[in-house]
Description:
- There is one protein chain.
- This protein is an alpha+beta fold.
- Helix content is 49%, strand content 11%.
- It has 18 helices and 10 strands.
- Strand 6 (168-171) and strand 7 form a beta hairpin.
Amino acid sequence: MESVRARIGKRTVDAVRTPAAGEVRLWDTDLKGFFLRTYASGRRVYAVKYRLGPLQRIYTIGTHGSPWTPEQARAAADKALQRVKAGEDPAAAKQEARRALTVAALIEAYLADGPATKPAKRASTWANDGSNLKRHVKPLLGRKVANAVTKADAAKAIADIAAGKTAADEKTGPRGRARVLGGQGVARRTRAAAAAMFAWGVEHGLIASNNPFAGVKLAAAPMRERFLSREESGRLLDAIAAMETDNSLSKTFGDALRLLMLTGARKSEILGLKWPEVDFERQRLVLPPQRTKAGGQTGERRIVLSPPALAILKARLDAAEAARKAAADNGKGAGASPYVFPGYRGDGHATGLRKAFGAVCAKAELPGVRLHDLRHSFASFAIADGASLFLVGKLLGHASARTTERYSHLSADPLQDAAAMVGRRIMGEAPPEGATVARLADYATTRR
Length: 448
């Protein structure tokens, strides 16, 4: 190792020769302990040497170049020496920071150990959160120390996700493909997942009390108030029946869509339905807490079945038992599926309902309708027919009355008809005898 002494500046740094092996140290003549290390690779690194008690330590400042100029490195060295005078060990602090949990490691710990600490959180929600954290947060912040992530870092990451900078289209196997999207919706979900992860890390002592994502502000999600009118519901049912007749829609998907319309249940609650969860005697579905979104707060979810919904389930049970008997008569030992809507391959439930629903909507000439709008429509029809928000909340399995309140205005018909009734009163035109706000939807239909 060769040592030279001079005031460290741009001219002297550029003049230091690159050794064939080992390193050359340029010691500054103005600031004691401040030096530049030049390696055989040509890499030049600023550092400061100091004594703390009986120990001599070296604190690495950074590599020469952006951002470390000789002047900036000198200032950092002086600051480090001031910390030494105050009894701190800057090298030890830096080593501790290097050993600290990175965001990538925090993500792995959260997804591995978090489910055991949050039993009320559904497996599907964990899967969605894991996808958002791994595909969006990890590429942007994965290498940063979790404790060092600032609110500015978090805000920039979320803004980049909203702008689509983490979007990707990649193969996940011989026949698999992952399309990673960006946008405001993905950014909102990712922010919530990251905030929950950091809160979990703080709670379990993995990181300091720092939750940078908690303070990130996003534009409010746009309200999607699309719902089906009675006439549109009829068109949808007609389209389902017509497509079943011409074999462009399976009976499995047709029945699943009808059951969604008749129960207001979520897609996962119906497609994942198992026969032990169907209580024909009490005319209801009984889902365990882990099968429903609010199960952690409300316990098991009970979905009341109307006569048409019961008829669909009984017909499917009869068909399943007939298929099982036919398989037994033919000497096939395959067991019957526990699912009401079994998949075509494997042992799971049916998949692909969203795509099938898109085809049904195209047939019914209902553009822009989402599968979840069937749940909105169920609530809207119940309210239009006089059901209270309390009852609608029970039907939909809501944990909070505030969640149900959004459905009180999803249907335009009750609002428009209520306004029409007020208008008639103001203008002196009496509404039909016995009419109420709850019944005005039917009245409006007959008037058209």
